[in-house]
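RECORD TYPE: inverse folding
INPUT: structure tokens
STRUCTURE:
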């Protein structure tokens, strides 16, 4: 039972970090993305670099992917607008998932 509780807390924390990085990318734009782009290792050679890439994508992968995708496909202001519209959809989805996991953990641990 404690394992499920800990896994639930980890999932909520990862979603919250993705949500926070999404909001920061929407506010600061390219500066935030380039800052976190430096933490990603291209062509990893060691296991440590591979683990860091997995941690990077677990913590910042979804907002980073969509921001870069929109920037490659459209000009700067149109991409920022699309990212903000995507963020309007992403925030409630994250809130619903975090609330659902919280309710699941609440009912599961009270048994």
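DESIGNED SEQUENCE:
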């Amino acid at each position: 039972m404690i394992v499920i509780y800990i896994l639930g807390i980890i999932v909520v924390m990862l979603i919250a970090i993705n949500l926070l990085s999404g909001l920061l990318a929407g506010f600061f734009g390219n500066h935030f993305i380039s800052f976190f782009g430096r933490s990603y290792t291209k062509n990893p050679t060691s296991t440590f670099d591979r683990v860091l890439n997995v941690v990077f994508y677990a913590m910042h992968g979804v907002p980073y992917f969509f921001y870069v995708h929109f920037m490659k496909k459209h000009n700067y202001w149109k991409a920022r607008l699309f990212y903000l519209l995507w963020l309007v959809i992403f925030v409630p989805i994250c809130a619903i998932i975090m609330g659902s996991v919280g309710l699941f953990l609440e009912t599961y641990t009270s048994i």
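NOTES: The CA atoms of residues 45 and 51 lie 11 Å apart.
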